[in-house]
Amino acid sequence: MCDWCPCPPRDGEVAKAQRAAGDHAPTIFSKILARTVPATVLYEDEKCMAFRDVAPQAPVHFLVIPKQPIPRVSRVGPEDTEVSLLGHLLVVASRTARAEGLHDGYRVVINDGKHGAQSVYHLHLHVLGGRQMGWPPG
């Protein structure tokens, strides 16, 4: 437990985020893009890929990643907005969620840095659905 809150001991994704080395490559996602690590791909185009999460936290849990390696959402630069990469990732998340049957809603999560529980330093959107999400999330 933390000194100041009733949270459980650090384990799982939080522990991975604390141990993550940061902005180094290659990541598991670059290996998935290179097809050296298998993934269940739901969508792919010239800018991004969507695939199922290997450790789902909801009945439907997939990731949307850019093919361009951006380590963190806080490291997005002007060039990423000029080509509308971020908007494209959200549109792909929405279309893929619809294709996965998430008609009653879903959650989109972007973790940033160790305090945001980011354990893979390649920008990625988690799309979670198929059940009622709780609030607050953290």
From TrEMBL:
Pfam families: HIT (PF01230). This is Histidine triad nucleotide binding protein 2. It comes from the Eukaryota. Gene3D superfamilies: HIT-like (3.30.428.10). It catalyses: adenosine 5'-phosphoramidate + H2O = NH4(+) + AMP. Belongs to the HINT family. PROSITE patterns: HIT_1, HIT_2. A motif (Histidine triad motif) lies at residues 122-126.
